[in-house]
Design a protein that fits this description.
membrane; transmembrane
């Protein structure tokens, strides 16, 4: 009663299946980007200046920290006496 009904003569699968070929790759024109030597020099000089500023800030921070330690130790010695 609830059994599936199968067709009497099933059609056989085709022997040749057509595989679609890949389309030819699309060659898009690459935009030409011209970088002048002035731009390169500007970037390099900017990098050197920023690096020098960072080094100056680091040296200043270290010297301030050392000065604070020296002052703290001097004040501590004067309070002990």
């Amino acid at each position: 009663m609830f059994l599936p009904k199968y067709p009497d003569s099933p059609t056989p699968p085709s022997a040749h299946t057509h595989a679609p070929t890949d389309p030819a790759p699309v060659h898009r024109p690459v935009p030409q980007i011209s970088v002048s030597t002035g731009a390169i020099v500007t970037v390099l000089v900017g990098g050197v200046v920023l690096t020098a500023l960072l080094a100056a800030v680091a040296v200043t921070a270290i010297s301030v920290a050392i000065a604070a330690l020296v002052l703290r130790s001097m004040l501590r010695d004067s309070h002990r006496r």
